[in-house]
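Hi R.,

As promised on Friday, here is the backbone we talked about, encoded as structure tokens. Could you run it through your design pipeline when you get a chance and send me back a sequence?
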């Protein structure tokens, strides 16, 4: 009897594990998986008129006064654009509060460790900039994914035009078939056109959400074709081929600059690794950099020079194609 219960428990555990794996796959799977099932569910589920909201209500924070402050302050428009381009689900107010909290914590921590005022300001700036760096990293990752998906999306629009469909139908097909982030952006643009926004304005809104040079080429070609006429399908095909050639050239440049990027990483990481090793071997010798005023000044100057050197080396190996 006990053996049967143990076997039944193992069998139930395996079933629960398989169900958890299936649920996690459905949640984490990118857009484009099981599209037919998703369409059937969307068509079969009734949509109540009360659920439709064609007015875009932008909420930057759940705190009312912070939400009003972020909307009225013009100097924070750059941060709002960055947050929009990063497509982050967390509200912008959370990043602002996190930046303030990290900056204050870094400043107080440096003063509690009896560091100089300049080093405390450096700690405050570095910690306070972490949310901004995260948004910038997320924007770059999303932009790279968007540009990799763009040639296939242009080919899909071109095939729709060759089949006799309208340009808006091609946008709708990309929004339904392509994975995010390009599927989301084209779907939002199609929704704006469906709601009465002019096509040039919808295209311009898309460029504000996605800071891509290739996308600007596509939008410019569409707008010029609307004014002068021509075969839009051939224009889009040639543009997609040009983007693919640019990707190939970028990969070649990345391979040729690999040695420079590796040298930059070694030069930046070597002082930190050597400093940690010396601190482990002789703590009294290295503690002078943090306790003695001269050592604190030298550490501050060295940190600033390392940051400047990192920026310079980044610009040297970052070759624009």
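Update: got your reply. Pasting your designed sequence below so it's all in one thread:
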């Amino acid at each position: 009897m006990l053996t049967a219960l143990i076997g039944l428990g193992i069998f139930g555990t395996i079933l629960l594990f398989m169900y958890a794996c299936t649920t996690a796959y459905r949640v984490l799977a990118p857009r484009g998986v099981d599209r037919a099932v998703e369409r059937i569910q969307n068509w079969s589920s009734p949509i109540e008129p009360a659920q439709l909201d064609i007015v875009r209500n932008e909420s930057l924070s759940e705190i009312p006064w912070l939400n009003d402050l972020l909307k009225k302050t013009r100097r924070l428009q750059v941060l709002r654009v960055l947050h929009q381009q990063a497509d982050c689900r967390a509200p912008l107010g959370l990043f602002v509060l996190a930046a303030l909290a990290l900056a204050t914590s870094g400043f107080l921590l440096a003063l509690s460790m009896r560091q100089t005022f300049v080093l405390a300001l450096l700690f405050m700036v570095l910690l306070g900039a972490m949310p901004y760096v995260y948004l910038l990293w997320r924007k770059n990752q999303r932009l790279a994914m968007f540009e990799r998906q763009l040639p296939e999306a242009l080919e899909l629009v071109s095939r729709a035009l060759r089949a006799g469909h309208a340009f808006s139908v091609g946008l709708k097909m990309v929004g339904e078939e392509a994975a995010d982030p390009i599927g989301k952006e084209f779907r939002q643009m199609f929704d704006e056109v469906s709601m009465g926004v002019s096509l040039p304005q919808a295209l311009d809104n898309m460029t504000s959400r996605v800071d891509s040079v290739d996308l600007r080429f596509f939008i410019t070609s569409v707008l010029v074709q609307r004014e002068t006429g021509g075969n839009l399908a051939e224009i889009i095909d040639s543009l997609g081929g040009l983007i693919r050639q640019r990707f190939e050239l970028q990969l070649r440049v990345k391979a040729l600059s690999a040695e420079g990027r590796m040298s930059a990483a070694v030069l930046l990481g070597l002082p930190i690794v050597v400093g940690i090793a010396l601190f482990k071997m002789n703590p009294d010798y290295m503690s002078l950099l943090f306790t003695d005023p001269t050592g604190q000044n030298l550490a501050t100057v060295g940190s600033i020079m390392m940051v400047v050197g990192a920026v310079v080396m980044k610009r040297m190996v970052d070759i624009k194609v």
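One thing I noticed while checking it: Confidence is low (pLDDT under 50) at residues 46-55.

Thanks again,
M.
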